[in-house]
Fold each of these.
Amino acid sequence: GPALVQEEVAGANLDELRAKAASCTRCDLYRDATQTVFGEGPKTAEVVFVGEQPGDKEDFAGRPFVGPAGKLFDRCLEQAGIERDECYLTNAVKHFKFERRGKRRIHAKPNKGEIKICAWWLAAELRLIRPRLIVALGATAAYSLLGPQVKVTRDRGSMLRAAIGPPVFITIHPSSLLRVLDQPMGQLEVERFVDEMKCVSSFL
Ligand code: URA
């Protein structure tokens, strides 16, 4: 598990870690996904954002947060004065999990086993980057980093601590904003998320 010394990657740097993750078969999600979508950003980043898993666009591009949720996330970061390029962006689960509906690939939620298995890679990334702050974007990231006691709706906006490592700021996943954008309260939800990103930036 992630708490154990990661002997397999003990001497690896971030690029070597990425190369090893490209051939990961630790769980079954590699079978249907196009490729591993590893984290991206400077190895000296002060903040690491952790999403859920790559989406359809990310799966093809091989990069995190380049689809619709990523574009909305970019705009929110910009409004909060956070430079995306200065942050490290990664996911709790590094392969796209989906169900086929005809030609479409519909996002499927990673299960607890998949999240726990992939937490091994997240732990290795965090061990190398050693950020000052981690931001958990949504329930999957929060579960991966802190376990089942976190409730995003209750705990969002607060700073929690794991047994080791830097504080973890809890917030929602930007894809949840996509679903409310056209609703009356949607813009308020976006503003609340931007305010949370400003809170993150004030810690840096
Ligand atoms: N949603 C995520 O959680 N991660 C991505 O990389 C893209 C969308």
Amino acid sequence: AGGPEAGEAGEAVQTLRRVFGYDAFRGDQEEIIEQVIGGGDAVVLMPTGGGKSLCYQIPSLVRPGVGVVISPLIALMQDQVDALRALGVRAGFLNSTQDFEERRLVEAEFLAGELDLLYLAPERLRVEQTVQLLDRGKISLFAIDEAHCVAQWGHDFRPDYLMLSMLHDRWPDVPRIALTATATKATHEEITSRLRMDGARHFVASFDRPNIQYRIAAKSEPKRQLLELLRSEHAGDAGIVYCLSRASVEKTAQFLVDNGIAAVPYHAGLDARVRAANQSRFLREDGLVVVATIAFGMGIDKPDVRFVAHLDLPKSVEGYYQETGRAGRDGQPSTAWLAYGLQDVVQQRKMIDGSEGDDAHRRRLAAHLDAMLAMCETVECRRVRLLAYFDQESGPCGNCDTCLTPPQTWDGTVSAQKLLSTVVRLKRERGQKFGAGQIIDILLGRKTAKVIQFDHDGLSVFGIGEDLREADWRGVVRQLLAQGLLAVEGDYGTLVLTDSSGEVLRGQRQVPMRREPEKAARAAKAKS
Ligand code: ADP
Ligand code: ZN
């Protein structure tokens, strides 16, 4: 039954069954595939594990010619091509890891029409030879994977992606499909305009990953906290642990190994062979933990990653979403756990202040960080906040820490006033700058060497905060930062007032706060 349209859809489904061995399309796959088979452009926003690959693989098989896939993930091309070849799909790739002879072979296959899919690193298009090669073959479509890399203010900008607007100029009749797993409204718009996809149809799937349980804990002893999580909930499970620095990657991996957990490090400073070996062990072995910087993970297709743990604060909500999204691609229950503390904020501010680029760039980075902080300190459902960041609405999920154990809130207005007035007092001491540590010592009435050195025990605010514990005060600082009522600047994490601080000091604004959990408070106390 049906006209030509039904016939085309039939061909897509047949290909799905015959080549990939699946029964039916999921979500928007079928509509997306029909759009591209019909010669139209598509912009696809779909979460990790949603099934983006088939959206260009099937049209490449159905349409005459070769589907050209632009991907920044050079390290994965070999694996992707091998997997396709195992299914009988004629696939090849061109990137900088190949020697002349290997490249020539692929080029010959392309020209002879012996390929269904050709994976291409974006920087290849800078080479005129590549462009001429593409001109001489028949192209069925362009797929632009990880399309958010074109967004200049996004978290993963790649300059080579800017060139991709040339695809439309040079091959106006070839349909294009841009795909990404993370995009705020702004990034989505940037993808559309920079890639000149004005006439495209847009497919925005729900970004919700219901099987991922989001949890954010106060950081006290991060490695110990991680170990407890792995032992109590994820014994023998595969997972990824993200750390900010290479040094902490190494230390954390060693710590896990010392405690009987199979773990390997992964960061850009490791020898390429070690890195490749660790990545392939992670993909092939059961229950291995990779401790990594964010250099690890994009495009990694391991379905049974049971947890993603962050020992340091991600730089943006987009990054957090994308990194945690590597858990549970198989749909089984998985954990996204993040430990975060005041030191993270200080450290990241420092990195932003020292970063290259103009003020506007630094302001963007700061805005990303602020959104991430607000996510950490929210008393609302984490998922609601996360999806709201991507302009998607949802109700409380029942599967995040704030839903499962609703945080107690308290009226922190008076405490905020005490802390902010201490910051005001110290500001008057010219040339001297103090971070959270000194301010908390003053509030708690501690006569430390540094307190005595600066006569801070003589201040009227000395000891006015003895009603709270140190961990509570740290929580107060974090929440004031997250609410934009306090800011941190400079190398030493100096605390400074913001434009809104005055409202609190003058009693014009209430400051609701999230109570610090008893456990974190105890651990921080034991340490001090
Ligand atoms: P993404 O690129 O969006 O993260 P993938 O394309 O890697 O997702 O797909 C995720 C997993 O789901 C893969 O193992 C893929 O084979 C599988 N998959 C995709 N579409 C279907 C489908 N229609 N039916 C069954 N499995 C599918
Ligand atoms: Zn929730």
